[in-house]
């Protein structure tokens, strides 16, 4: 795992050093640059496979015609290497997966993407064809930003790499800001800046003769296959075992990030089963009991007999990280679980360089509480509208709870954001600001510049690609296309790579994703709970309390902290003076949201946190 950066156009070696220096935390073991005429590539290496100098990047073929800077892991690189060696055309000088990509390009060209199995973002320059290729993996596990600035094509693993180039211009994109206030992240391909994009998952970009062409090389589908429950569980067992096994390959210490939920516990089960030694597992705990999952993690570790490592953090430790959020992210993303994820990554990094996680299965197998809400909505929507409106008004009178995943908060969100299409409704349950609130939160001058497009219109664009699917599969598809790559994977990547920890996600193995998507929905969600087929598979393999426990996010007690411990920071970041000077938001509207939360009338943690993260970002990067 590494950091990459570069450009085509005007630039110097100092530009390259600055760009890769901005993401040096992603690769603390080595750095390198390549500069030839108007082409510059840079690399910061986190050594995982072949720790020798032969793995130095940017790497070239034996004729120095093709150059590559690569971030990620290709899990089938040994098989690909054997296939390439059989042609008799190529002489390998290293044991890396990096070199395999170079010769796969020479042999297969654009068809190589069908063969690559892994997580990756890379830039490959073919000097004979005068062509630059930027590429991302199928699910978007590894990030890649790019931008055209004054005729220069810039790219990098993080936005801060592009900002380090002297030609980069920072112009706030208010359409992106509007999407951020709705989704709590900025959906690809947009970024917070104009003329700057994120490369979408399963996409490669070709830059040649000043022209840009983007091409998708893989699409998800939900075409059903006839299969019994027992056959489905058996095949899932085989696929999980294979996915974990190939992610255990490493020349450096490796462990498991263990939360105590069924997903990470399943990964720990397979890792321990496949390992001849005790695998290292890592968990963290918090003093606030409704947010502390560590007893479940310990239960799993004891049950599986892993080499378990655990740490407990105080609220002060977590809160001390908040000012660094903008440095870690460099683009607004309001998922507060980045704080505990960063703490866990930092704790694990003390002993390992690679870690496996359970990320991705909530999106694959309907694991979030919103899927329960979706199931219940079919009954609720049969009630007359006046009755639904009355229920929402009554619930609004109930004082806000400070507990994690409180029933009160969930019911208010459910009833208050119920109208509209089922797909849009589902995403509004996760959103910070409603359409009405978003419009009122802007300063009058900004309101005039905003277009009439609703952020949720993006969902319709995605749904056009899967119009024949059931409602349930449409919702799953949208999670895999939006929330997973733009929130969950961003959070995990930035939190872990900030400390030079590579995180691998077995549930996002291509074969698992394709197989689970082909299963009937009731194999994933049944009754009032998701992950049905996984729970059936893991019976007697994990403690019953782990199999049956309800979903619990990796969160922090934000509702209470914003009332007390974080109130001064909230008031500072959102002060009327600061808001008016900034000129983006309406000070009175912001103050109203603060007052409602501080008085306990409404739980406005999502709105306040979303605004605070933007303010932290704005102060750091503009």
Provide a descriptive summary of the structure in words.
With 622 residues, the chain is α+β, with helices and mostly antiparallel strands. Helices cover 45% and strands 16% of the residues. It has 29 helices and 19 strands. The strands form four sheets. A six-stranded antiparallel beta sheet has the order 2-3-1-9-8-10. Helix 6 packs across helix 23.
Low-confidence residue ranges: none
Q: Strand count, sense and closure of the main sheet?
A: 6 strands, antiparallel
Strand content: 15-25%
Structural class: alpha+beta
The number of distinct β-strands equals 19
Query: End-to-end distance, in Å?
Result: 29 Å
Number of helices: 29
- Shape from CA axes? globular
Q: For the residues shown, what is the average pLDDT?
A: 91
Tags for this entry?
29 helices, 19 strands, 622 residues, six-stranded antiparallel β-sheet, alpha+beta
Short structural description:
The protein is α+β, with helices and mostly antiparallel strands and 622 residues long. The chain is built from 29 helices and 19 strands. A hairpin with a 2-residue loop joins strand 18 and strand 19 (529-530).
Helix and strand arrangement:
Blueprint: E1 2-8, H1 13-22, E2 30-36, E3 39-45, E4 59-60, E5 66-74, H2 77-85, H3 97-108, E6 118-126, E7 131-136, E8 145-149, E9 152-156, H4 159-163, H5 174-183, E10 196-198, E11 203-208, E12 211-216, H6 229-247, E13 254-257, H7 262-274, E14 280-286, H8 294-304, E15 307-313, H9 315-319, H10 325-329, H11 338-349, E16 354-356, H12 361-364, H13 369-380, H14 385-396, H15 407-416, H16 422-430, H17 435-441, H18 444-449, H19 457-463, H20 471-497, E17 502-504, H21 510-518, H22 521-524, E18 525-526, E19 529-530, H23 532-538, H24 544-548, H25 558-563, H26 567-573, H27 576-582, H28 587-598, H29 605-621
Helix pairs in contact: 2-3, 6-7, 6-21, 6-23, 7-8, 11-20, 13-16, 14-15, 27-28
């Amino acid at each position: 795992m590494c950091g990459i950066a570069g450009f085509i156009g005007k630039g110097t070696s100092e530009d390259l050093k600055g760009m890769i220096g901005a993401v040096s935390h992603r690769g603390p073991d080595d750095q390198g640059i390549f500069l030839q005429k108007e082409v510059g590539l840079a690399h910061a290496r986190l050594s995982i496979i072949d720790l020798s100098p032969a793995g130095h990047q940017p790497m070239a073929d034996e004729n120095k015609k093709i150059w590559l800077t690569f971030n990620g892991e290709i899990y089938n690189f040994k098989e690909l290497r054997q296939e390439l060696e059989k042609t008799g055309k190529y002489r390998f000088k290293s044991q890396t997966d990096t070199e395999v990509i170079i010769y796969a390009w020479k042999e297969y060209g654009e068809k190589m993407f069908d063969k690559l199995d892994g997580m990756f973002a890379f830039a490959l320059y073919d000097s004979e064809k005068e062509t630059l290729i930027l590429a991302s993996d199928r699910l978007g596990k590894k990030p890649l930003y790019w931008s055209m600035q004054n005729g220069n094509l810039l790219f990098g693993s993080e936005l801060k790499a592009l900002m380090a180039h002297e030609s980069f211009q920072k112009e706030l994109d208010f359409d992106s800001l509007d999407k951020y206030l709705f989704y709590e992240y900025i959906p690809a391909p947009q970024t917070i800046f104009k003329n700057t994009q994120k490369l979408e998952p399963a996409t490669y970009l070709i830059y040649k003769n000043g022209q840009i062409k983007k091409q998708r090389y893989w699409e998800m589908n939900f075409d059903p296959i006839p299969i019994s429950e027992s056959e489905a569980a058996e095949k899932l067992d085989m696929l999980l075992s294979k996915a974990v096994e190939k992610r255990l390959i490493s020349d450096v210490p490796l462990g498991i990030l263990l939360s105590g939920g069924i997903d990470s516990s399943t990964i720990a089960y397979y890792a321990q089963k496949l390992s001849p030694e005790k695998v290292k597992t890592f968990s963290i705990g918090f003093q606030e009991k409704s947010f502390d999952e560590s007893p479940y993690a310990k239960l799993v570790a004891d049950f599986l007999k892993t080499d378990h490592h655990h740490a407990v953090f105080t609220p002060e430790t977590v809160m001390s990280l908040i000012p660094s959020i903008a440095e870690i992210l460099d683009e607004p993303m309001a998922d507060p679980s980045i704080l505990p994820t960063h703490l866990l990554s930092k704790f694990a990094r003390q002993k390992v360089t690679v870690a496996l996680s359970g990320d991705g299965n909530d999106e694959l197998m309907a694991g979030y509480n919103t899927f329960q809400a979706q199931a219940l909505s079919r009954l609720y929507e049969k009630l007359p509208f006046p009755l639904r409106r009355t229920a929402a008004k009554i619930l609004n009178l109930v004082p806000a709870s400070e507990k994690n995943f409180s029933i009160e908060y969930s019911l208010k969100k459910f009833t208050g954001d119920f109208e509209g299409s089922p797909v849009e409704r589902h995403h509004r349950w996760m959103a910070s600001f409603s359409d009405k609130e978003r419009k009122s939160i802007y300063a009058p001058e900004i309101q005039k510049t905003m277009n009439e497009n609703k952020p949720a219109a993006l969902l319709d664009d995605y749904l056009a690609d899967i119009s024949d699917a059931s409602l349930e599969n449409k919702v799953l598809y949208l999670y895999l296309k939006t929330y997973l790559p733009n929130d969950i994977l961003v959070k995990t990547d930035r939190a872990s790579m900030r400390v030079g920890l590579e995180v691998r996600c077995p549930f996002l193995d291509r074969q698992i994703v394709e197989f689970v998507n082909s299963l009937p929905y009731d194999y994933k969600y049944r009754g009032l709970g998701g992950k049905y087929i996984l729970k059936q598979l893991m019976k007697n393999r994990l403690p019953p309390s782990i199999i049956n426990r309800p979903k619990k996010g990796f969160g922090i007690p934000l509702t209470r902290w914003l009332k007390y411990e974080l109130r001064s920071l909230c008031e500072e970041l959102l002060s009327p003076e600061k808001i008016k000077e900034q000129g983006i938001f309406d000070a009175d509207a912001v103050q109203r949201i603060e007052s409602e939360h501080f008085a306990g009338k409404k739980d406005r943690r999502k709105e306040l946190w979303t605004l605070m993260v933007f303010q932290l970002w704005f102060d750091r990067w503009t």
